[in-house]
Amino acid sequence: xxxxxxxxxxQKSSNKPSFRKKTSHHxxxxxxxxxxxxxxxxxxLGCPHFTNCPGCTLENNLNNPxxxxxxxxxxxxxxxxxxxxxIHQWRHRSRLAIRPNNNGLLDAxxxxxxxxxxxxxxxxxxxxxxxNKCATAxxxxxxxxxxxxxxxxxxxxxxxxxxxxxxxxNTSISDSQLIQLVxxxxxxxxIPPRLAALVDMLTSTYSDCLHxxxxxxxxxxxxxxxGSEYLHVWGDEEAWTTVGDIDIAFSPGSFLQANPEAMAAxxxxxxxxxxxxxxxxxxxxxxxxxxxxxxxxSLAKKILGEDSNDNDNxxxxxxxxxxxxxxxxxxxxxxxSARLMSENSSSSSNKKTHLTKxxxxxxxxxxxxxxxxxxATVVVCDPPRKGLDKKLLDVLCTDNCINSSSLSQxxxxxxxxxxxxxxxxxxxxxxxxxxxxxxxxxxxLFFPGTEHIETLVVFDRVT
Length: 463
What we know:
The protein has a domain at 93-242: CATH 2.40.50.1070. The protein has helices at 3-7, 66-74, 129-144, 193-205, 260-271, 294-304, 330-347, 369-373, 390-397, 399-402, 420-432, and strands spanning 82-83, 93-100, 106-111, 118-120, 159-166, 179-185, 210-217, 229-235, 239-243, 246-250, 284-288, 318-324, 355-362, 378-381, 412-417, 436-444, 454-461.
């Protein structure tokens, strides 16, 4: 099916196809934020590992990935904007494999394409220098304490992977360069002497760059990086980062965007498409695939910042419902939402608010979509690369579902996509259903050095 079929559903009076205009009951600010255009020098990777490393696929013109051309053709918008932030040092979370290098020594890096051969990347240009420093420290201490690298062929060895995440706000540690380190150990819930020696050496030698150390146990003979069991062994259990103007807690097992600057830019745009909660009616938001709640909590801050003196009945009426399948994400969400509400209470004690509750459900977005969408006015979703769950799409596109009384208030879908192929498929189905039309599209360069873009699409309900 070609895009012309979608165009037929969203034409202006001039009969010229349009994906970005729609009459709405809610007025929005101008849809596009200023776009950062890096200089020619800043659009070059300049990484010494590029030739062998599979992590980056673009060495030049990083601000013009070919996926952007695909999006401009698909949405028939040759000027579709791309937000470009930092080209270097943007990555704040990294997972590296621990395997033998070409000399047989334990090392950290990425796998060559289609193999388990390691490419060491100690001077990676896209990772924050604190991550490079931490990886180098682990390699040094692991070699010194006799830790053995994992070997796929035999299933033997000690250390399989590292996960490193930068922290930049915490209840007791203020240094913005400290790393939450997760050591993925090839064992089942025990601390053998070599692991204890590794932790001791890291904390005695490199405590100045570490926020905390966790052990993840993984004995599977698969390519799965993380197992299901975590053990906190050193440092603070609570870890925080800042995305835009909000504090977000995270755990070792919860999803977190690796590029907080680009995520903050996407949040700024998303906020512009949340209708005002006025007239006492409030705004009801469902945040699907919520993770630790970054999107929904940022929208909660917007709602809390609005003047709600026009709520004549004196009742708070806005709410946000979060749905996330990973149980590890719930506790960080509760910490972040509690901090937001506490800060709001202390800064605006005499101000009424429409926001009555933020509720979190550990479940799949596709398990019972009608339950999650019940009485919502806006859906915000940031699904994995496979896109929206089929059951969710069916509910959004089927007459007897979308026209039911429980979904009658649903007016807008705000879709932040990390999988462009899936986005095209989902867009076709939503617009072909003639229930939705595309109001706004823009793209974000979350992973400079690759062809990947994150695409924000705002759908309004056809009335």
